[in-house]
Amino acid sequence: MILLRSSLYFACLVIITVIIATAIITVGLLLPFKQRSAMANAWGMSNLWLLSKICNLNYEIKGLENIPETGCIILSKHQSAWETLALRGLLPPCQAWVLKRELLWVPFFGWALMALQAIGIDRKSGRTAMSQVVTEGEKHLKQGHNVIIFPEGTRVAPGERRRYGAGGAILAHHSKFPVVPIALNSGIFWRRRDLRKYPGTVQVVIGPPIEVEGLKSSEINQKAEAWIESTMETLPQRLEG
Question: Residues with Cβ < 8 Å from 6, sequence gap 6 or more?
Fold first, then answer.
């Protein structure tokens, strides 16, 4: 039954992605960035609704009030594809995602990402990618947008850890905008390379802003990682029963 429900959800995901992505890259391009972003948030919230109704996969979020109104750098734990859908819908609309540039080539989905001014980087280019994150990220921050980064760079299974990349911390050091950390346990319900979505409730915790004035990028990264990983220890990391 779980596999059947998950397959049904996947079919709905494809359909709704094509519909909303088409709207974003046609009508949306004629609209201001904020309204175009609101269309993308509707996609995220629609997916959360579908996951709840079809797969009985729900969520609880704490700390939304910690996100500044003037823009910040969001560093989030990354366990699953779930947060790429959910954070798009749950966070304030004006977002700039840092992601691997290959995603921009995906039909409809990638085209919509380009319309939403995602920062697509070549992860093999080292300093060039870092410079791109700082230059484009600072531009977004000054416009009041939130820059969203998964510092681990890829999905990491529950209970495992991966070195945190420095891109978000370096952006914070250069721009002086605060860092907001996010911990979540989506990976126990929606696993990497697994079609099945297990019923339950994903826990999302948004931490208080980390003020970066006077801190080195390494210190910023350490503070964000310490908060995320210590908060992860308080969240369930396996399915009940």
Answer: 55, 195, 196, 197
CATH number of domain containing 204: 3.40.1130
Phi and psi angles of residue 190, each rounded to the nearest 5 degrees, phi first: -135, 100
Q: What is the largest CA-CA distance in the chain?
A: 54
In a domain, 138, yes or no: yes
Total count of domains within the chain: 1
The predicted model scores a pTM of: 0.95
pLDDT digits (tens, 9 = 90+) for 17-66: 999 999 999 999 999 999 999 999 999 999 999 999 999 999 999 999 99
**CA angle centred on 233, ends 171 and 67, rounded to 5°:** 40
Q: Kindly give the pairing relationship between strand 73-76 and strand 179-184.
A: parallel
Half-sphere exposure of 8 (CA within 13 A, CB side): 12
Q: Which domain holds residue 205?
A: 2-232
The answer to whether residue 227 sits within a structural domain is yes
